């Protein structure tokens, strides 16, 4: 079963260079990539800066996704922003994992079970989408806390798992320190995704565990992707063994 996953910090649909809210750029960028599963960060809901759009529902409608989940992370004066998962396959068991560190910005991970189905074949896949903190010790605590969540901690060793999002980890030390010792592998390498206009830092990652094979991974560097957000989308193509 072949499928494509994209993780993308959309920066509320606000361009990294012109600071203008133009969600059509995000929509066109993602439509061109034809993802099966989307991990999105910095997604607005009913916020004035983004015209009070409910961006998860808007993006799902524009891109033709039938299955979606949104997680409210930060409560603003009006509205929220947080993480979202969009999928062409059914989602169930949607849960939140609180990653907040005292005196730091509220952070959570959004988890879900996805029923991957291609032709006559189907497979359950676990998803975890997150936006980690800015400080190294904070990120380490957050990622270890996520791995202790029952959905991941109690998963069978043959259950495929994807953990992705904005890791805010420039050198990749976090994955080597926390994820790789418990059998997760870096699917996307060290593709630079930030800042979008002149990408220098590989902040966005997808890690996987279980019967998955990576075929291709890249950061989209189209002219439109460089303008749409302050991050570039990271794309990974997988095959799930039956």
TrEMBL record:
GO terms for molecular function: catalytic activity. GO terms for biological process: GPI anchor biosynthetic process. Residues 6-231 form the Endonuclease/exonuclease/phosphatase domain. GO terms for cellular component: membrane. InterPro entries: Endo/exonu/phosph_ase_sf (IPR036691), Endo/exonuclease/phosphatase (IPR005135), GPI-anchor_lipid_remodeler (IPR051916). It holds the Pfam family Exo_endo_phos. It comes from the Bacteria. SUPFAM superfamilies: DNase I-like (SSF56219). This is Endonuclease/exonuclease/phosphatase domain-containing protein. It comes from Bythopirellula polymerisocia.
